[in-house]
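The protein record minuted underneath.
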Amino acid sequence: MAKLYFYYAAMNAGKSTTLLQSAHNYEERGMRVLVYTPKLDDRYGEGQVTSRIGVQRKAIMFDSNTDLLLDAAKKNAEQAVHCVLVDEAQFLSPKQVMQLTLICDRLNIPVLTYGLRTDFRGEPFEGSKYLMAWAEEMVELKTICTTGKKATMNARLDDSGNQVLEGSQISIGHHYVALSRKEFNLPQASPISYEEPDLEAMGLLPSRSK
């Protein structure tokens, strides 16, 4: 039975590189793949999946109105499709994630998705939330923070290198950096309001945290 996979990571962990390698592996065995990328991500030109190490390939663009199940079914009827791959999967709508599950369940075609879990304020993307809920397989691609610790968060920076805490969830033009949760300063970045008590002044911090 075909499965839905979600490969997730912070920025610069090699998600697009892994996608391109997976597509190459299928194609060198004579299998046909469909590679989708969101239309709104045009950093490297429209309809391109581009790795930071310089590897690039053409992809099928989708937007919020694209029915991925219908599109894949039509292309599969013309010529057998062996795998569907989706770059920047955090930008999928919940309905499109449902469509991907049906590509697996109705067409018996495996679907490999690659994306971020959370935005610059630590909030989950809608697409990623449903991929986490519905995918059979979830694989974390790891990268490190500037401190050397594991990076799990995506900080948005302004032109001066300062962390941005306000703005729309989707903003392609900004610069981003992957940070550990502690370095990201989640209580400051998150829209979830919590007034943190001064544990140090209260003498409640364990010695290892000081």
About this structure: The helical segments are 15-27, 68-78, 94-107, 126-134, 181-184, 186-189.
